[in-house]
Amino acid sequence: MNFPADLKYTKDHEWVRIEGDVATIGITDFAQGELGDIVFVEIETNGQTMDEHAVFGTVEAVKTVSDLYMPVSGTIIEVNGDLANDPAAVNNDPYNSGWMIKVKLSEGADMSNLMDASAYEASL
């Protein structure tokens, strides 16, 4: 499995790439592998300000539907529209073309719960 060292991770199997005050968020290689073939990603929270741990969307695989949780608090400023036509990008390239949302971080957003790659891998 692949856990890039430049990302942060959550116990809910989301990854976070922080660039300035914007966080790009998706699900980890482990999560997509556990879910199986992803057939639909639903995110209807664009433009909303959400707290850490709030549900920002769902991902549907052949066998199950799973909630997606905000790893940090902030305002969703972009949703990956390409996933509507190609949800399998989450399976094929979860850390790049399979990203899900971009979030403008809230002032003082708590990132203490985020793990580095080695801590995340150890938690599995």
Mean pLDDT across all amino acids:
96
Proportion of residues in extended strands:
35-45%
Order the strands across the largest sheet as they lie in space.
1-2-3-9-8-5
Helical/strand content category: alpha+beta
CATH architecture classification: Beta Barrel
N→C terminal distance: 11 Å
- Major β-sheet, in short? 6 strands, antiparallel
> Based on CA inertia axes, which overall geometry fits?
globular
* H and E order: EEEHEEEEEHHEH
> How many structural units, i.e. domains?
1
Task: List unreliable stretches of 5+ residues.
Answer: none
User: How many alpha or pi helices?
Assistant: 4
The named CATH superfamily: RNA polymerase II/Efflux pump adaptor protein, barrel-sandwich hybrid domain
Give the class-level CATH name: Mainly Beta
Rg, rounded, reads 13 Å
What brief labels describe this structure?
single chain; 124 residues; alpha+beta; OB fold (Dihydrolipoamide Acetyltransferase, E2P); six-stranded antiparallel sheet; three-stranded antiparallel sheet; 4 helices; 9 strands; 35% strand
